[in-house]
Amino acid sequence: MRRSASTVVVAAALAVGGLVANPAYAISAHYTPEGVCGPGFGRVSTDGSRAVKTPSGHVFGRVYLLYNRRTGQNCVVTIKSAYVGTATRTSATLVTQVRRHRDEPVTTAHKSDSGKYKYYAGPVKLYAKGLCVKYSGLIADTRSINGEIATGGRNTWGNCG
Fold this sequence. Notes:
Structural class: alpha+beta
Number of strands: 9
Number of domains: 2
Radius of gyration: 20 Å
CATH class of the largest domain: Mainly Beta
Distance between the termini: 66 Å
Low-confidence stretches: 1-28
Helix content: 10-25%
Strand content: over 45%
CATH architecture of the largest domain: Sandwich
Number of helices: 3
């Protein structure tokens, strides 16, 4: 009986050690879209999160669309789940429709945050109350010359109003 109890203790210690031994995952788990965008922002319930994946299907993270009812702003953030803790090219982009006057044609406003980031890109914020938006994220594996590029988001207008 004593031997099996010590086996359980060793197994539990190894399991805990395995979790503690990966600090990059522990750090990235603390980043949430709401935390990055700030107070008052909540995830858009209709199509407000998309996987950022390579053409071969590898998921490198997620891109999120959030909205703040008080300010009328949308916010986009791309949070990495691959290459966490390694500075790789990462971006978050938000595009909104803009209508200055009722009789004028609709134009667009575009804003991005792009760089070599360890955990996430963003927040990218634009006023979008009553306007349609598009959003996207990118995460690149820059460890090699031919590294994969993962993209995701929505390239059609949505969340109008």
